[in-house]
């Protein structure tokens, strides 16, 4: 804003491998808010596609071109079925292929599929919008929404894995690290109890036929004040690993900003607002589960200095970082999104079979700490460590 960085968009992604015996490796966001896997197609030559790794079906021994119904497409076909998939920001258009996905890499001479591999339908993107796909380093998105969110159940990675691979536990767990020195983690076939500081508390998925990891929201309160929007008991909260902010209905976002704003005394020159105290925000779910977030979770790091020209005075204010959610046909007018701020504080486990989500306070390492045995990872475009200088607004 005004040529000054006030916040950062973040994305957490990992590697997958497509095709056998020769694998093609891609980085993908593991996204509970969508239900398809897409990667850029080798036939896409746009600026956005060329910025990423692209998939070439002629390099795979397991690729099968298919139509919308899953039937094989003849090699001499001149037209292909396509689908358009919209995300919270951005969309992709692509054709279909049935392919083998493996979580682990393999050498071509030992490339037999294992417990970490599954056959599923993949979307090969021939068009990708610049925003956000030209901004981030990841190549594609692996959707982990419930199977009913997909065009066909065979597009659902975890649905196929649960069905075909005889998993001991039909669930996956998600850990989001607060520090760059320790990687975030997703585990399939169960959750990682080592990441939990408190036992998991389970809340049932509300209306699972919609395909979202959606929870019934009984109330939302900030500093002890309940938001009237949820008094009728028809609010929902969606656990979304692909959203970098907390989402709130646009109709109440302004009131929430007002309740979460804090005046900082003594007008310091710089401050990280995540370290300045603020009121608690509590999301009350079913089954007695409460998600409690404080200033470290919801605050925008950069403060705002308000200059009053009439009184020649200034006031430094710390604000929340909220994503306004518009009234949509699918989610409705009372949908909140539990994005990264909530998922950093809470380890989440997604029980596919019982259709429920478990929440437990995560064990977070200290900055600079690298526990023994942690896998290596790469951080792109990390913000500076110094406290940000407040933005200035004149009134």
Please provide a written account of the structure:
This protein is mainly beta and 395 residues long. Helix content is 9%, strand content 34%. It has helices at residues 47-50, 130-133, 157-164, 250-260, 295-298, 340-345; strands at 13-18, 24-31, 37-40, 64-66, 83-86, 91-102, 117-128, 140-143, 171-175, 185-188, 201-204, 214-222, 225-226, 235-239, 246-249, 262-264, 281-285, 290-293, 304-308, 313-318, 322-325, 335-338, 346-351, 356-361, 391-394. Strands 1-2-8-3-7-6 form a 6-stranded mixed barrel. Strands 12, 13, 14, 17, 18 and 22 form a 6-stranded mixed β-sheet that branches. Strands 10-9-23-24-11 form a 5-stranded antiparallel β-sheet. It is globular and about 75 Å long. It starts with 12 loop residues before the first strand and ends with a strand.
Which percent range fits the helix content?
under 10%
Q: Which structural class is indicated by helix and strand composition? A: mainly beta
Main beta sheet, described?
6 strands, mixed, barrel
Question: Strand order across the biggest sheet?
Answer: 1-2-8-3-7-6
Q: How big is the Rg?
A: 22 Å
Based on DSSP secondary structure assignment, what is the total number of beta strands? 25
Low-confidence stretches: none
Q: Termini distance?
A: 17 Å
Number of helices: 6
Q: What is the overall shape?
A: globular
Beta-strand proportion: 25-35%
What integer is the average pLDDT? 90
Question: Layout of SSEs?
Answer:
Elements: E1 13-18, E2 24-31, E3 37-40, H1 47-50, E4 64-66, E5 83-86, E6 91-102, E7 117-128, H2 130-133, E8 140-143, H3 157-164, E9 171-175, E10 185-188, E11 201-204, E12 214-222, E13 225-226, E14 235-239, E15 246-249, H4 250-260, E16 262-264, E17 281-285, E18 290-293, H5 295-298, E19 304-308, E20 313-318, E21 322-325, E22 335-338, H6 340-345, E23 346-351, E24 356-361, E25 391-394
Parallel strand pairs: 2-8, 3-7, 14-22, 15-21, 19-25
Antiparallel strand pairs: 1-2, 1-6, 3-8, 4-6, 5-6, 6-7, 9-10, 9-23, 11-24, 12-13, 12-14, 12-17, 16-20, 17-18, 19-20, 23-24
């Amino acid at each position: 804003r005004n040529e000054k960085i006030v916040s950062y968009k973040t994305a957490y992604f990992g590697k997958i491998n497509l095709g056998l015996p020769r694998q093609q490796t891609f980085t993908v966001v593991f996204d509970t808010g969508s239900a398809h896997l897409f990667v850029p197609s080798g036939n896409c030559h746009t600026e956005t596609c060329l910025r990423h790794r692209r998939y070439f079906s002629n390099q795979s021994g397991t690729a099968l071109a298919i139509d919308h119904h899953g039937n094989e497409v003849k090699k001499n076909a001149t037209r292909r079925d396509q689908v358009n998939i919209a995300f919270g920001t951005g969309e992709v258009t692509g054709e279909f292929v049935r392919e083998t996905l493996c979580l682990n890499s393999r050498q071509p001479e030992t490339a037999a599929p294992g417990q970490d591999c599954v056959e599923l339908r993949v979307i090969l993107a021939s068009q990708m919008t610049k925003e956000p796909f030209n901004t981030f380093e990841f190549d594609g998105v692996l959707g982990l929404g419930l199977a009913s969110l997909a065009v066909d159940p065979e597009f659902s990675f975890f649905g196929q894995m649960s069905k075909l691979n005889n998993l001991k536990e039909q669930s996956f767990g998600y850990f989001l690290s607060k520090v760059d020195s320790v990687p975030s983690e997703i585990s399939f076939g169960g959750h990682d109890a080592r990441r939990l500081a408190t036992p998991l508390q389970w809340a049932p998925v509300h209306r699972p036929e919609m395909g979202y990891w959606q929870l019934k929201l009984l109330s939302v309160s900030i500093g002890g004040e309940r938001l009237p929007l949820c008094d009728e008991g028809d609010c929902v909260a969606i656990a979304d690993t692909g959203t970098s902010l907390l989402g709130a209905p646009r109709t109440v976002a302004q009131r929430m900003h007002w309740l979460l704003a804090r005046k900082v005394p003594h007008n310091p020159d710089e401050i990280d607002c995540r370290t300045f105290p603020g009121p608690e925000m509590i999301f009350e779910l079913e089954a007695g589960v409460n998600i409690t977030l404080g200033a470290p979770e919801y605050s925008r790091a950069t403060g705002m200095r308000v200059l009053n020209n009439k009184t020649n005075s200034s006031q430094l204010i710390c604000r929340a970082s909220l994503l306004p959610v518009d009234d949509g046909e699918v989610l409705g007018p009372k949908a909140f999104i539990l994005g990264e701020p909530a998922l950093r504080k809470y380890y989440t486990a997604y029980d596919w079979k019982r259709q429920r989500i478990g929440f437990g306070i995560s064990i977070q390492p200290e900055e600079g700490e690298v526990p023994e045995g942690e896998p290596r990872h790469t951080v792109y475009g990390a913000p500076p460590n110094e406290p940000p200088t407040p933005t200035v607004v004149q009134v």
